[in-house]
Design goal:
CATH architecture: 2-Layer Sandwich
Distance between the termini: 18 Å
Largest sheet: 2 strands, antiparallel
Bound molecules: iron/sulfur cluster
CATH topology: Alpha-Beta Plaits
Radius of gyration: 13 Å
CATH class: Alpha Beta
Number of helices: 3
Strand order of the largest sheet: 1-4
Helix content: 25-40%
Structural class: alpha+beta
Length: about 80
């Protein structure tokens, strides 16, 4: 996973209340989605569709709590696949 969210409980609580989860809107590729949390009726949790990512880095900059870290997907000796 090349997208790291340091604390997803912030997404479900503070960010939802204070900012309405802007990651769902600023990401051009719909990577971030708030989905129903089966464990907590009525609550939402963050779901990350990492494979949609187009590596624009917007989330690294635009997230209001700076808890999203985008790291270059080629790092770390994984398979060296091509995007697109
Ligand atoms: S880098 Fe861009 S495309 Fe990828 S998750 Fe972040 S905002 Fe979305």
């Amino acid at each position: 996973m090349h997208l790291k969210v340091a604390d997803t409980s912030v997404c479900a609580t503070k960010c939802r209340e204070e900012f309405g989860n802007p990651c769902q809107h600023f990401c051009p590729a719909s990577v971030y989605e708030m989905v129903p949390d089966e464990a907590r009726p009525g609550a939402l949790k963050l779901h990350i569709n990492a494979s949609n990512c187009v590596h624009c880095k917007t989330c690294d900059i635009a997230d209001p709590y700076q808890i999203i870290t985008w790291v270059t997907p080629e790092g770390g000796g994984g398979p060296n696949y091509r995007q697109l």
